[in-house]
Design a protein that fits this description.
- This protein is mainly beta.
- It folds into two domains: 94 residues, Hepatocyte Growth Factor, CATH 3.50.4; 191 residues, no CATH class.
- It is 7% helix and 37% strand.
- The chain is built from three helices and 19 strands.
- The strands form three sheets. Strands 7, 8, 9, 10, 11, 12 and 19 form a seven-stranded antiparallel β-sheet that branches. A six-stranded antiparallel β-sheet has the order 1-2-3-6-4-5, with helices on one face. Strands 13, 14, 15, 16, 17 and 18 form a six-stranded antiparallel β-sheet that branches.
- Strand 10 and strand 11 form a beta hairpin.
- The longest helix is centred in the first third of the chain and has 10 residues.
- It is elongated and about 65 Å long.
């Protein structure tokens, strides 16, 4: 008999040394999941038997979905608590996977995610000490940290690593922008010896999607703090009220009517240059991302 520990809405199953934690009302989808022992019409399994199947297939099975009503068992190649996971809320199913303490995307750990138009003050959410959704990750709605969760109902995700940045041994940092779950712009930065608020800089830039050499351009602004209500600001404009603003990125943090691109609403708005060389924002030739995410790699 397999040990089974029950909690309200949750369960822990230990099988062959593997520990699976359950979450009622969710299932992972779109991962090529299957039940390798399901042939014909008789596919009913106990929850423990489903866990055994996942444990046997541990080279490909990272989690499983289980429907108690008919014993349906689906093995997943992805986990629910991942930035890239596709999932759905459904009362008939329950998700089971490893206990999660981090949100990952390939080799990156997610430390912050914000949704455009959600009404939050972007910079206050970034700097808000003590807010750490990953301290109770398995009780969070995955929409908080999923790249597909672009709803204002889940405005931002913040990891404890933002408060522990200086002692975390961060090697590299990535800023990514997403539309409909697709990455549309990304930059990476040297994170060694950085702080939470100074890694986003011209001097630390490693990679970017533009054909121009940003190092040669020496942007006037290249910082997280930016200028007034423009954050994560990369711009050649030296004068704030000069709306002829050539640049690469602006996070609009508060409502203002100064320039036409500042009027994008509701806030926050994530504006980025779509072209290969940058854009003049006054011409409104720019992309508007739904999700902004920051990731780190550790030494």
């Amino acid at each position: 008999m397999f040990p089974l520990l029950l909690f309200t809405g949750l369960a822990l199953i230990i099988v062959h040394g593997e520990l699976y934690r359950g979450r009622e009302g969710y299932r992972v989808i779109g991962t090529g999941g299957s039940n390798p022992e399901c042939c014909g019409s008789d596919c009913s399994l106990s929850r423990s038997a489903c866990a055994v199947l996942c444990s046997r297939e541990n080279s490909t099975c990272k989690s499983f979905n289980y429907k108690a009503a008919d014993g349906s068992c689906v093995l997943n190649q992805e986990e629910l608590y991942a930035f890239d996971a596709l999932f759905e809320e459904t009362p008939a199913w329950a998700y089971y996977g490893p206990i999660a303490n981090e949100v990952s995307s390939s080799q990156w750990t997610l430390v912050f995610k914000a949704v455009s138009g959600s009404g939050i003050n972007f910079i206050e959410s970034w700097q808000q000490p003590g807010v750490a959704h990953d301290q109770d990750l398995t009780n969070q709605n995955p929409a908080y940290f999923s790249k597909y969760g672009a709803s204002s109902s889940y405005p931002f995700y913040r990891s404890h690593w933002l408060d522990d940045w200086s002692t975390a041994g961060i090697k590299e940092v990535k800023l990514g922008l997403y539309e409909n779950g697709t990455e549309v712009m990304a930059m990476t930065f040297d994170g060694v010896g950085s702080s939470r608020d100074d890694w986003f800089s011209h001097a630390r830039l490693r990679t970017h999607p533009y054909t121009v050499d940003l190092a040669a351009f020496s942007p006037t602004f290249f910082s997280l703090q930016g200028q007034l209500y423009r954050k994560f600001y990369i711009s050649m404009s030296a004068v704030f009220n000069n709306c002829d603003n050539f640049g690469w990125l602006i996070v609009e943090n508060k409502d203002t009517n100064l320039c036409i691109f500042d009027k994008e609403s509701p806030k926050p708005q994530f504006l980025y240059a779509r072209g290969s060389e940058g854009t003049d924002f006054i011409n409104q030739v720019y992309g508007k991302a739904e999700v902004l995410a920051v990731f780190v790699k550790f030494s």
